[in-house]
Amino acid sequence: MLHYSRTCGTFTGMKANGTDVRPWLAALVIGVTGIAFGACDRRGADDEQVAAVEVAASWRSIAEGVRGDRIRRDAEMLADDAMAGREAGTEGFDLAASFVAERFAALGLAPLSDGSYLQEVELFWTRLLPESARITLQAGDTEIDLTIREDFVRSGGFGPGEERVDAEVVFAGHGIAAPEYEHDDFAGIDPAGVILVVLSGAPPHFETDLRAYYSSSTVKQTEAASRGALGLLVVRTPVDQRRRPWDRYLPGVGRTDMEWVDSGGVPFGGYPELAGSAVLSQGAAERLFELAGRDLSELFVHHGAGETGSFPLGVSAVLERSSDQGRTVSANVVGILAGDDPRLRDEYVVYTAHLDHLGTLDDGDDQIHNGFYDNAVGVATLLEVARAMTKLPVPPRRSILFVALTAEEKGLLGSSFFAQNPPVPIERIVANLNIDMPFLGFPIGDVEAFGVEHSTLRSSVEKAAHAAGIVLSPDSMPERVRFVRSDQFSFVQRGIPALNLKPGSISTDDSFDGPAMLADFLDNHYHRSSDAGDQPFSESGAERFARTALLTGLWVASDKDRPSWNEGDFFGEKFATGRVAPVSAP
Ligand SMILES: [Zn+2]
Asked: What are phi and psi of 118, to 5 degrees?
């Protein structure tokens, strides 16, 4: 078990050395002396410095006002059975959205230009009729019928309601073309008009976030569709089989999937051209490669070592399915805090937390998936940050958008819609700070911030964590590739520096085993009906986390320079090219 302890030595040291205290540094010192009373001995605070920095004193005061019991109450409210799991497009979600909109109004946040707090999102939904789903593999005279749930899972389609694809099957490694690594799984094959079989994940020598990026199903689908493929059959690597056992896929069969609809009425994403797609179980994958006369375990080893090598399997496949389809409307909830600086108030820092969850699913017991940590606690934290900021005597220099997003669980749809249809010019959004599933079962001693290594946002979150009396730790589970798995990624794809703030696993109280509690949550409660209001919750942990989120945003919103991607950064190069030059205050 990790043990956490720290002193205020760093901060008193700064003063003793007579360091030239710049405003943020003074704010840091004051922040710590004022806020981190739980972790440090308060005697000997420097009154001269407290008097010297007005802004910092107000930050200290609002940060001290952050309350864990309020976060708990709001989270319990959002995770109540009355909200029925807040699935996008349901009454339960709309109820939750009204709750947040009313709170924004009560806090005095401004609505959107049409006077509403709701940014409506039209959604196209599709639901597989499981009994209609069939896959037949054929080589020579041999035919193999695969069975849904036992052998494969797939979702409803965004094309016609009835679909049938009959095509050759071609193995394409991980399905990745990454020029950075001179890795091309499409070398030597023609993906056009065929069904590609690809391994999940990405080569192990890819740097963590690039591996995450190239592992994502969206990137693989985009790649396959742009090359004219008709489908993707995903074979899970041994690593992924261990990480997510097959039975964890089954509750999702027959669930509703969605895409947002653009102004032309077309679902954005959804890849209707890839109608021959499914995820194969281990057994089905073995039968497919056996039919092709290939050794799958050998391919796992070869491609698991980062090698390439793609080839036709000499097998054809027929995939059929019927889908129920329709349209519905959901909404992102948006509240605006206008900035104070006439030169910078047209720039925006966007806080996000997804409001939706899974709704009702049958996973064996209770059907309502309340989503307490995922992400009622995240929204409750966002509300507490918003409440604190409205208490500032002078708002931050830049404006702040607080956004409770819809349809994250359907594939980051609310954030994708928001980032593609922003209520303010996209180049005026300087940063996204996202909060998704902050596990706060114990008094936290650290936070993590996915994406921190890519942009200048690092300095803001580092200062904020220290001021909140905790530390910034590196991503403890890089293999979970979380930087591209939540809403911040929709902003990254528009070139906006972004972070996903997450509590770490260090407990400041020895009677809680932080890493074990976090592992228990992820293994046994994540995306299950037991992620509900009776989960352990530490109010002091929630306060430290919310203060970190609050102060991070304050620093970003008040800095004279807007955040920027690090020189030569992969995501900056890929997505931020062509963004307007940073506007800086004098
Ligand atoms: Zn989730």
From this structure: -105, 125
